Amino acid sequence: MADGPTEITKASEAPRARRGPSPEKTAQTRRVIVDAALGEFLEKGYADTTMDGVAKRAGVAKGTPYRYFPAKEALFEAVVREKIAGAVIDADPANRRPDETVSTFLRRTMLGSIREIERNGRAAIARLVLVEGARFPEMTDIYRRVMFEPLLNQIRTLAATARSTGELRHVELEKYPHLLIAPIWFAIIHNGLLDRDHPLDIGDLFEANLDLFFDAR
């Protein structure tokens, strides 16, 4: 009997377990870190971007980025996957409507984002890979695995569909899907490295290339 009140008092004085951040708060913090990383990569390049710099830009504690990303490579992959690879998601052949031609599908899903490629940072990240990829092969591997190869595979699948329906003018596209996006890469290099004063319209180049490969229907 004598021990009862003491046990109750001790129980009432025991520290309450702290609740962790909500899933919404966790997701928001992660988004802020990825946004900050994109800004750091574009402003400072891959070599000079640091996790501390990302944390400062994001307005979080120095250790916070490491809770989400173990190293800069993982953070760069998140940037490519979430900020750059939208074209891969958009051009998924599974999203093509049954009555939609391949060329119409590519215009609907890719052309808009390609026209925005300079404004949204996708072109700058591609140039960053070109410029720094030889020194940091992990960059090239991430970009190839997350962005480049999936897009090529989707174009190859779409080219095969277009060939089967008689829409494809040049069957070489099925073997070399690189041909469809080659003008995009040329314009990215031209606009950022070769002639910044006279930029090419990347969307117009891509659309002209579509007309070369597909019959208008």
Number of strands: 0
Q: How confident is the prediction overall: mean pLDDT?
A: 89
Number of helices: 12
| H and E order | HHHHHHHHHHHH
Helix content: over 70%
**Overall structural domain count:** 2
The poorly predicted ranges are 7-11
**Major beta-sheet overview:** none
| Helix-strand category | mainly alpha
User: Cα distance, first to last residue?
Assistant: 90 Å
* Beta-strand fraction estimate: under 5%
Net shape? globular
Radius of gyration: 24 Å
In short:
By secondary structure, this protein is mainly alpha-helical. The protein folds into two domains: 22-72, Arc Repressor Mutant, subunit A, CATH 1.10.10; 85-213. The protein has helices spanning 3-13, 23-48, 51-58, 64-68, 72-84, 86-90, 102-115, 122-132, 137-164, 172-175, 178-194, 202-213.
